[in-house]
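User: My instructor asked us to take a sequence, write out its structure as tokens, and then describe one feature of it. I'm not sure where to start. Here is the sequence I was given:
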Amino acid sequence: MNLSQLGAGLIDQALYTVNSLLWVVYWLEDHLPLLAAVAAGLVVLLVFDRWVQQDAHSRALRPDRAATGVQGVEMHVTQVLTLLALGLWVLAALGFQTPVPELGAAMWLGMVLLLALLPAEREAVQWRLKGLILGYALLLLAFRWYLGVVSTIDARDWAAALGSVDEAQRVLAQNKGIFETLGIWAAWFAVPFAFGSYAVQKVLANRLSLEAPFRRAETVIRAIRTRGEVS
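Assistant: Let's start with the prediction itself. The structure tokens for your sequence are:
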């Protein structure tokens, strides 16, 4: 191999590496909302779910007695719900373009913010918000399935029932337009608006504590029961 061939090979390898890096950068840019949603979901899973589960299944006692708790599969209910909602959301978001992934990312990030602002309401808030996101993902998946089914319908199969091929085409197109409009309205406005309305209502209805605004309910109860003593 001569020097010119070696130089050409190095240039080709450098171009291949640069193109690969650019592909990764472009992919990350295109899927930034989805990645933000996954990151927020992992924060919920690894941080807030653990706190909620501890608050629900343990109670603090006096310093001379150990805290009690429930062990077993019930200790992972919130984590399982988070994984289910996050997994279905990823599947749904991959099938839709802007603004659906951005709306989903805003919902997941909003849940993280709300759980941080309302420590005393975390169990109820995380249950309701995960339910809304789970329902949103199922709605999108059902809408995607509907679009796939409608695209395979042949007007000639409905000609006998509707009178003619032209009439079948008109009726099918009209109904398809109605359902597509309803699906887009629900995906773009209805569910995100319900999520935002619930979040705003919770923030306005629950005044932050002036003494310890971000203290968990378990910590407050332990401080009261132990009279501030450290075990």
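For the description part of your assignment, you could build on this observation: The longest strand covers residues 58-59. Try explaining in your own words what that tells you about the chain.
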